[in-house]
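Troubleshooting log. The previous run stalled partway through. Resubmitting the same two chains, unchanged.
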Amino acid sequence: MNIAAELVQLLAAILPMAPEALEQIESIIDGQTKVPNFDAAAAATRIANAMTAVGSIEAADDATLAARFPSSP
Amino acid sequence: MSSPKGFVRVSVLAAIAVVATITVVPFVACSPGARTTTINTTVATLDAAQKSLQTYVQDHESTIVTGATSLADGQGKLATFRSAVNKVELAIATGYRAAAAATAANDDSTLTALSQAALLVAGELAAIEKGLSP
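Second attempt completed without errors. Output:
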């Protein structure tokens, strides 16, 4: 049983919003993509980007909520 | 565009994908090439889970804001939701750090730690789904 292939099939079925991620995973498993070593700096960058993205969403929603109730203290 | 419930489903299924990644580890941990593939696949899966989480946060917060009956009501519901999201974010961050450690140190313990971190992500995503289900 090719577990890696099954993983790709599973991802294909459940992550329709992220085809680029899927392609990346497939190419990694196939050995077509040589991914640079995932070091501490790469981890820190991903974590920071994720926090920034969610933070931006939250800030926008805070502003929208406040705009909905302008007379509230 | 999917419904809010659809995004919940995607988040949880992303968690399953992480679990699926964990199942790869015992089978491929025996060779350096397979080890690298395992780490890279787990990182890519964490990336996918992170993207799904962001989409879910955007959609669910929009639903909270739209349905809020007052500023205090909305703020309270957002705070509760964000507390749950923060746990998932921390779990994903732990996963990324574990991947970096597994890359730097070529031993079994770091790969085991990576699988445990991925399991943590899966658990937190499952928890957020459970807490938000009707």
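Takeaways: The first helix of chain A runs from residue 3 to 14. The interface with chain B takes residues 3-4, 6-7, 10-11, 14-15, 17-18, 21-22, 24-25, 28-29, 31, 35, 37-40, 42-43, 46-47, 50-51, 53-54, 57-58, 61-62, 64-66, 68-69, 72 of chain A (CB under 8 Å).
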